[in-house]
Specification:
alpha+beta; NADH Oxidase; binds flavin mononucleotide
Amino acid sequence: MTIQPFPLPSDNPELRSFLKSRRSNLAKNMTGPGPDKEQIEDILEIAARVPDHRKLAPWRFLIFDGVARNRIGTHLGRVFEAKNPEMPPDRVTFESERFLRAPLVIGVISSPVECPRGTPEWEQRLSSAVVCYNLCLAAQSYGFGAQWLTEWYAYDSDIAIELGLGENEKISGFIYIGTPKDASLPRQRPDMKSLISYY
Ligand SMILES: Cc1cc2nc3c(=O)[nH]c(=O)nc-3n(C[C@H](O)[C@H](O)[C@H](O)COP(=O)(O)O)c2cc1C
């Protein structure tokens, strides 16, 4: 088999226009449908096609769909209630329904490995963040809405145990994917001049 080189980059105004105007879609404003099985596989393949120093793939995916969203919700409610006993029952219910906001939630887990050749853990964590972003873009390329959230449960040690996280694993994000009910409103963007300097 001959290996074909990639074509050189070419001007792609459509892609540029998408990237220039991209916005997240709020999880709380999502409904069904979400991507089907084939689309999910494709979205994950795109998500994993990220810069990754030394091909370590230092991340993995945890998928929540269907009743799995209720199952994790039961834990969210229980953990939240135990740690916030002063909260009213309706707040506990709200917490237990977080994963029900979208038909599909994909957890991206940063899973750095010992690299004998020395890829720093920091770079492996960065690669995992890019996976989250690529996941959002891939979902949006299919016409779905996507939002990268962490909220409290990404940092909770009891939820980490429930999700089977290893000692050095961290949640990079939960990507909520579904059909947006409304268009996103514009969001203020940074003043580019204040961010750029020349060395
Ligand atoms: C690591 C990370 C965690 C985030 N967690 C939350 C969150 O918990 N809650 C939230 O409202 N937005 C969170 N965001 C922001 C949203 O993903 C999103 O950027 C925001 O809604 C603005 O939309 P935009 O992407 O169109 O700028 C997070 C972003 C990042 C990069």
